[in-house]
Structures are given as structure tokens and as C-alpha cells.
Amino acid sequence: MQTTPSGRQGSVRTQQRGQLLRHPGAQPTGFRRIWHNHGLSIVLVALFVASLSGQTIAGWHVYNDEQREHGTPAVALAEYVRTGHFSEATFENWESEFLQMAFYVLLTVWLFQKGSSESKRPGVVELVDLDPRDSPDKDEAPWPVRKGGVVLRLYENSLSIAFALLFALSFASHAWSGRIEYNADQLAHGQPTVTLTEFVTGAQFWFESLQNWQSEFLALVGMVVLSIFLRQRGSPESKPVTAPTWDTGK
């Protein structure tokens, strides 16, 4: 149960939001049950694989076009995926996505946007704010909650930690592969190569990173602000269609 400074009125509103309407009839079984319970993840993974495959094939053709322009032989697809051209483009985008999600998870812990479905309600203690150490249901909680101590401390921050680590790995991979691609281009034009430190502190690396970062933060601003005024029936990322404009949360 969530509590609000306004007392019973806030509790009633919370209870109303928590009411669920279930479809009548038998629950699906077999593959239909898997699809019913995990369809979102399945479709997103499929879209990721399809997009990455398309990027790989398109990038392969672009790379070979550039090879022919420089009078060097084209490469096979298997050889292309080991080049800096492919790795840099891939990790450059992953880096910005994981940075976006890491910031989003952390900023929504402390900051609010009145009216947005992406924000907690200002002045309200949400279930996600409650200390798991005081939970009466710890016996049914995941193992880290029952274990307590450092394990629980890591677990209760594990989502932001995971995104931060994924960002760090992608950032490092972007720097490493970006240097390889940059030096290959330098050699093709008879220019000197650079060290990893020189590349990371240079304008090229930060131009590649920041042009992606700004677009990710713009997308977050759009999601937070547009969800104040606009609706998408059926989506958990939207408030109910009948919800008042400045009513915060789902």
C-alpha cells in the first residue's frame, strides 16, 4: 500500500490504480503460454537481430565500396565483421543506449515530472521506495533480499549497476575499435596513426559519442514530456486515456 501526505484520498487513488482486469477463460499452454508471457522480449530480440543483420550487410557493402575507391580488394562478410568499421559503428550505438538507460534509471529515483507517466508521483512514497529490509514478505523475496548485507545492497542497485557496466564495456569497445578504423583510414590516406590515448582525447571520438548521446537524451525528454499530454491505449508506458493531464504516473 502506498501512502500520501493527503491520507485516505491518496490511498483510494492508489487502490484504484492497482485494480487489474483479467481476461476470462483458460490460460494458454505450451508455446502460446511462452508467447503470452514473454512476447515483448521475443519481439524485441527479433527486431534487434534483424536490425543488426541489416546493418552488417549494408555496412559490408559500404566498406567494400570504400575499399574499391582506394584500390584495395573487397573482403568477405566474415572478414568484414572483424574490422573496425563494423565494430566501431556497433559499439558506438550500444554505448549511447546503455548510457541513456543508466541515467534514466538513476534520475527517476530522485527527480519528478508532474503529469508524466514516466515519473513517480511527487510527495508520494511508492512501493519501489520502500526499504526491503523492513518488508514483512522477505521469506518469499529473492535470495539477495533474504541474505541481506552487501549482497542486498548490490541487488537493490543492480539494475543501474548493470547498465553502467554495459555502458563502460561499450565505451571501451567503441574507443578500441574506433582507433583501429581511424588508423586504417589514416594509412589509406598516407597519414600517421594515433595511439589509443590520442584517439580518445581527440575530437573524432567525442564527435562520434556525443552525436549519439544527445539524440538519446532528446528521446528521453520526448518520452517524459509527451506522456503528460498524449496517450497510447493499452501501453504501460502511457497513463490511462481518461487520466487528467497533470495526473502523474500510470
Can you give a write-up of this model?
Residues 1-18 have low confidence and may be disordered. The protein folds into two domains: 30-82; 84-250, no CATH class. The chain is built from nine helices and no strands. The chain is elongated and about 70 Å long. It is mainly alpha-helical.
Proportion in helices: 55-70%
Broad structural category: mainly alpha
Q: C-alpha Rg, in Å?
A: 24 Å
- SSE series: HHHHHHHHH
How many separate domains? 2
Task: Categorize the overall geometry.
Answer: elongated
Key structural traits:
2 domains, 0% strand, mainly alpha, 250 residues
Task: Please give the structural blueprint.
Layout: H1 8-18, H2 30-69, H3 77-80, H4 84-110, H5 143-147, H6 149-155, H7 158-188, H8 196-200, H9 203-229
Helix pairs in contact: 4-7, 4-9
Give a short synopsis of this structure.
This protein has 250 residues and is mostly helical. The chain is built from 9 helices and no strands. Helix 4 packs across helix 9.
